[in-house]
Amino acid sequence: MSATTDATETAEEATATARRRMADEPASRVARFGAEHPLVLDGGITLAPWQIAYETYGTLNAAKSNAVLVCHALTGDQYAASTHPLTGKPGWWDLVVGPGKPIDTDRFFVISSNVLGGCMGTTGPASTNEATGRAWGLDLPVITIADMVRAQAALIDHLGIPDLFLVAGGSMGGMQVLQWASAYPDRVFAAAPIATAASHSAQNIAFYEVGRQAVVADPDWREGRYLDEGTFPRKGLSVARMAAHITYMSEVSLHQKFGRRLQDRDRLGFGFDGDFQIESYLRHQGSSFVDRFDANSYLYVSRAMDYFDLAGDHGGVLANAFKGTKTRFCVMSFTTDWAFPTRDSRTIVHALAAAGAKVSYAEIESDRGHDAFLLDEPEMHAILSGFIDSAARARGL
Amino acid sequence: MSATTDATETAEEATATARRRMADEPASRVARFGAEHPLVLDGGITLAPWQIAYETYGTLNAAKSNAVLVCHALTGDQYAASTHPLTGKPGWWDLVVGPGKPIDTDRFFVISSNVLGGCMGTTGPASTNEATGRAWGLDLPVITIADMVRAQAALIDHLGIPDLFLVAGGSMGGMQVLQWASAYPDRVFAAAPIATAASHSAQNIAFYEVGRQAVVADPDWREGRYLDEGTFPRKGLSVARMAAHITYMSEVSLHQKFGRRLQDRDRLGFGFDGDFQIESYLRHQGSSFVDRFDANSYLYVSRAMDYFDLAGDHGGVLANAFKGTKTRFCVMSFTTDWAFPTRDSRTIVHALAAAGAKVSYAEIESDRGHDAFLLDEPEMHAILSGFIDSAARARGL
């Protein structure tokens, strides 16, 4: 981070300042909405003012018929195909979005926004609550996937785009895709929910609850007011990330990538400082994550996933969420994904079929577990390209 | 806990006193070894004095040929078939050990000891280091499964028992069974390693590393000196237990037992206080665990599992660990156990077969994941009974 420090400011205070600035004044574009465009949240409050940060790639055509929305996962952001301003790394879907890539920015106008509850410029717990001048912290109610999608719909309106050619995303991004298709069936021509589920499983809720408990157990969390107090629950958030990260990898990939290999030593050290490569790797995942992500956002965004239950919102029958839909769907899952297993994707496919939707489904062989949707998976990319080409022909693009 | 408090003592200080007393003067029997019987640890130190706490059930016969050792898992103890002195609950293998049960105390003399590194009376980090008068804390080197088994062998010697009719246990208990059969082939007539592995997987190391990081991140851990300072890393240890506990259950059992059902409410609360039953359950698992277990013991005993690699100890060839063995083996695994999957048991069975050992193997259908070995699983109990009967006949018992 580039925050300037002065002698009276600690490093964490400077970081807190930088975090708040990032939340209010991100490096990307921002759509700001005032009292005339409040956002009504499922949690029962009406949010105004609020804002949504986004990036775009490619050019909107004259008919405004080539817009694509890509939706990010738990710890993603609007930088789908551009350099992350904090880490300097390529965008999280750089392999999928770009010129000549499956979501071809030479053909499509791609929008990628930070989710509501996030920390990269869309209103979330690190954003300033204008009523108090302080960060929202836990004064926000729990955000839902439907709230995130409502915010995205307001952005699309703001951009003057009547409907989306495609909504695509993996994991929590896939939940948003499903919510879009359900809530705005006439505004989604094609939908690609990848490595996702129509409701969060008990096991996933359990893992995220462990992470949240690790965050709130950290005394530097300060009951959620750490940004005001110039602290940050680094250790707790790091443990949360470590726990979640295990679920994103397959047992096979952990075995192949690390096995029982030792880190920087020839023999076991008989101590607790991390003998194994897998330990160093996880610690690195944890410690680098806390430099780019807000702890309260982790609580909110993970909670949004827990709350997602599209069947529950439709009388317990998932097919009802898609009744009469004209959207065409491409559902994909990965064989070794145990966080969002194939079973969850089949449930979606069966419901779509029961609703009479056009749906194609592919279970992709991969060793890489849940994270496969972010990685170089040629079969996924080929299927997505084929689906998009076919949908584009159907739309006359 | 029954520690008396006085006005100058905080609750955690009283607890610390009780924890140290439990470690030094447990409610069970204790074998104490002085300088004449040191324990040489894999970590390179010679431990003396040291002690091992144990319980016994049944009667040793005149020929001393009916002794059975049961070995406990990570958070188990010597109270296999007797009431736990802190929780008041039945022993962890009460369904397996007792009169008329698979390990029949009417026929066998059953020994159950607390592992080295534990906190229930065998020397571990909460025990007093006589050299300093303080708790060992992190001054102990990492303990190995082989160290645990060496301590058990010393106990068996102390009890005047030449060899064991059976060694049995699940999970980390199964690791001890394998180590016994490998290190003392002439002292083990029959061996039942259940839901275990000959080496800890990268995924398991990863989950335990998350737990350890949660413990050491807790400022009340005090670099491991919390017993001296009258604190206890309750929150960190609780998070560690929650993370591990998820791995002991199957996705199916979590879904069946909890699903997305809400706890004490009709609708979502839009807050972070635990809407779902699975969250309440995990929090309870965490908070009750910290009342009965020592945080540093959790570090040591989990680390012992990580270090276990029986093939690695034998030139990378697991069969070499059992070369020429006359022990008969009964290996069991459970279909939904993803912490110690069937694959790990098959590896053991193949190595035993390659070593020419007598081995039977059963993969038991169960919805209950890893914890099945502790639960009412009639097929496991029937197979274990049959194996024991057959081995008893072979031994003329």
Count of helix runs of chain A: 11
Mean pLDDT of chain A: 95
Write down the oligomeric state. homodimer
Which class best fits the helix and strand makeup of chain A? Answer: alpha/beta
Q: Looking at the structure, what is the overall shape of chain A?
A: globular
Largest interface: A-B, 58 and 58 residues
Strand order of the largest sheet of chain A: 1-4-8-5-11-12-13-14
Helical amount among residues of chain A, as a percent range?
A: 25-40%
How would you concisely characterize the structure shown here?
Two copies of one chain form a homodimer. Chain A has 397 residues and is of the alpha/beta class.
Textual characterization of the structure:
- Two copies of one chain form a homodimer.
- By secondary structure, chain A is α/β, with parallel strands linked by helices.
- Chain A has helices at 11-24, 145-158, 172-183, 202-217, 226-229, 234-248, 251-257, 277-289, 295-307, 342-354, 378-394; strands spanning 29-33, 39-40, 46-47, 50-57, 67-71, 97-98, 103-104, 109-113, 128-129, 134-135, 164-170, 188-194, 328-334, 358-364.
- In chain A, the strands form four sheets. The first copy, chain A, has an eight-stranded mixed sheet with strand order 1-4-8-5-11-12-13-14, with helices on both faces. In chain A, strands 2-3 form a two-stranded antiparallel sheet. In chain A, strands 6-7 form a two-stranded parallel sheet.
- At the A-B interface, helix 4, helix 6, helix 7, helix 8 and helix 9 of A face helix 4, helix 6, helix 7, helix 8 and helix 9 of B.
